[in-house]
Amino acid sequence: MIKISNPDGVAPPIGSYSHLAVVPAGTDLLCLAGQVGMTPDGSVPDNASDQFVQAIRNILAILASEGCGPEHIIKLNTFLVEPLDLEKIKGLRADMLGDAKPPSTLVYVPKLATPDFLVEIEAIAARPAR
């Protein structure tokens, strides 16, 4: 189905991601709204690492509602208000996404929708058409 790769002619990724996702024709695209670190009960952890984990949990829950998992993610965009320990984030991400290494972008921004939000992650996924 989805082909994830790192083509020759460019430097290898500097993290747990890939440079390219090729989505075949006849595939459903799932475009998720940016997910922040808000738990289902509406609380927001007070640190960026916990918000990162919760944002990924939210993404996985949304994907599961459509019969999808991490292997269906074709793009992640992460927005951070403050620096995170990237090695720690790599480990957390691997724990949650397993072997999935979708193309990804990480951007530092001055602020998000409210001052409590320190992390926001957008996801695009693909699945075989139903």
TrEMBL record:
Parts of the chain that traverse the membrane: none
UniProt lineage: Bacteria, Pseudomonadati, Pseudomonadota, Alphaproteobacteria, Sphingomonadales
GO cellular component: cytosol
Signal peptide region: none
Pfam families: Ribonuc_L-PSP
Family: Belongs to the RutC family.
Record-given protein name: Enamine deaminase RidA
Species whose genome carries this gene: Sphingosinicella microcystinivorans
InterPro entries associated with the record: RutC-like_sf, YjgF/YER057c/UK114
GO MF assignments: deaminase activity
